[in-house]
Amino acid sequence: MPEYLAPAVYVEETSFRSKSIEGVSTSTTGFAGPTLTGPTGGTPELLTSFADFERTYGGLDDFDYKAPHPATNFLAHSVRAYFDEGGSRLYVARVVPLDAGFASATVGGNTKFIARFKGSVGNGTITVQPVKSPATIRGMNNAPVGTILIGSGSSAVLKGNAAAPFNLTGHTTLAFELGQAKEPVSIDLVTNKVELTAVATLAKLDADTTLDIVLNGAPQPGIKLAAETQPQEIVDTINSRLQGCYARLDAGALIIGTHLPSLVVKQNSDLGITKTLGVAKVKALAEVTLEELDRALRGAGIQAISLENKVTLRTAEVGTTAGLAWKGTGDPLGLGTDAAAGKPGARTFIKQGTDWVDGTGTAASGLPPELDAAVGEFVTLRISTRDGTGRESLYEDVGLDPLHPRWIGSVLSEKPTRQSEAIQRLYAIQIDPAATGLTLYGQLLNSGEAKSFPLTGGSDGSPPGDKQYADALDVLANIEDLSIVAAPGSSAYGENTARAVRNELIKRVEKRRAYRIAVLDTPDASTHGLLSQVSQWRGEIDSKHAALYFPWVVVSNPLARPGNDRIPKEIALPPSGFICGIYARNDVERGVFKAPANEVVRSALRFQIDVNFAQQESLNPQGINCLRFFPGRGYRVWGARTASSDPEWKYVNVRRYFNFLERSIDLGTQWAVFEPNGERLWANIRETIGSFLETQWRSGALLGSDPRQAYFVRCDRSTMTQDDLDNGRLICLVGVAVVKPAEFVIFRIGQKTADARS
């Protein structure tokens, strides 16, 4: 009890009422059986619709079992029937045959795509497409770490063997081929450029200075230069008189030049200090500088630069289509007679931190000059997968480098951190530890273009055996919410497997504190259609926690297509999937205390065998629940008995209602453990359980005109001895008068004799 040590006002919370018991769920179901995909082991995901099942375990497509085993995907069809009949909460434990195989496809080296789950459904195709977006300076700065940049902006380059200037003769024609789809281009280059430089400055001229020029053998009119003329005026005068020549100033010196092969300058008077312009006759200077070559080639989209003191030609155009090839005769520029096409190679860069590292990873020298202006492309992947049944998935913005936030090794991880990815993503990639982003770029793409990888080797193997079913049922045993358990389709894989799985189901539902019922199927009526065979099947078991149903249900095949006769339009399915859904529907609409019989099988086209009244008279007393057709009333469940010889547990609703009561009281009284075992606790227990049972009586689940007739709760000295108290045992006796179904409705009608008073 609380301590009161200091004077104060103490406000405390207390309870003046007994605790309540909340009724547990009775319709949560567990199925065990083979599926196309899906995880095994661990805790299965809760499914609330057939769409949930398809996302996690695949669709309805048939298996690829070897004959004579049926290939029908019984469990998937049963799940669909379960939800169609009214089920709402389902757990599925996948059963995988021992000889099933994984599908895979080699990418390159030790890198390969694999199917995450065994089965032929993994034999699909993975297509990898590059997604290239133009790089910008801002994009480079904001790109996430691990982004790959392809330097497709490089120029096409031809490196020469000689340095400028070039000695060219006459008019030289240079021929080049640019790009991949362009015609060759020719440039006519004037090569004989002659310039004669005056050795004197034009600070002062004598009067009547005359300049005589002979150009290419033809004399020019003498040019008289006035004294005291400014240098620029002298240049202007010469330019206005000359034909085919020009004059210019260079640091105060007079330069006279021409582009023709020869130039002779004669003087009649003194031009300056040295009294001579040069030699009387000057030879031609047949030299072309790098700058002049660059000016001549720019019009054709070619730049001339000096690299390592040798002339280098490169295209002004950039990109993967850029190209430059020498197509002329001879070798006037010193390119070498074996000059090949200088196509640019794609350079790869990976962002690490704030730096762009060359694809080799050897140096973080930043971007090359041709990428300084953000010429290049960011590369990500778009990966589309298509499994063996045609289901497609798409993954976008996938990176190639491990530093990328959506690295392919994380998006298609073998062991993803998120449960949803581990369940729903069928394919994964195993990456060679030595592979880099550049390695994957070359392996996953075909020269930078899309590439497809077909996966092979996936196999469904043979139908699963009882050992694999037992493992799946162990998984379901760990889920406390389950109230109904079944293994739809297990009775179709041979008598030995069917018997073993049936016994495993019964064994697990009869365990202490299981609070479950097993819904059992009879074998396919095409092999066990005789009543004697069905009776024998029922005679092999005796369990108050199981119910057996006969015959199978024929439904329309959702896989059938018009014009395709290879796929049957109707299929027969085991009844357990339908019955489990009807159990759930009955619990919601009426209550678990109402027998799940006289209920319509909504999905049925018909039953595999039309059981008549006389046949059911033989089957019903044995505890075989029949599904029957009644004209005007449809296809109905016409039986509600357990597979037990104990008359106290004859009916399914009694068994399931007691499961409900036991588990509700179990969970609702856990608070009493380790409480002081005395009168106060006993009174609370009586009040807690009594209130719960009174609610059940008022809802119609218990028989009697008042609560005293419907139930009793005893928890006092009459139920416990001193030995019980000394050993920590609290014993409470609970009795309920549960309602049982009116299985036989009898009206007795007789004749009545009228007397005089009537």
Tell me about this structure.
The structure is a single chain. A hairpin with a 6-residue loop joins β10 (171-178) and β11. α2 (74-84) packs parallel to α12 (576-589) and α9 packs parallel to α10 (495-509). The strands form ten sheets. A nine-stranded mixed β-sheet has the order 2-3-1-29-30-31-36-37-34, with helices on both faces. Strands 6, 7, 23, 24, 25, 26 and 28 form a seven-stranded antiparallel β-sheet that branches. Strands 13, 14, 15 and 18 form a four-stranded antiparallel β-sheet that branches. With 758 residues, the chain is α+β, with helices and mostly antiparallel strands. The relative contact order is 0.14. It has 17 helices and 39 strands. It folds into five domains: 1-21 and 669-758, no CATH class; 29-99 and 464-653, Rossmann fold (3-Layer(aba) Sandwich), CATH 3.40.50.11780; 102-154 and 345-459, no CATH class; 158-189 and 290-326, no CATH class; 192-285, Alpha-Beta Plaits (2-Layer Sandwich), CATH 3.30.70. The model is unreliable at 267-286 (pLDDT under 50).
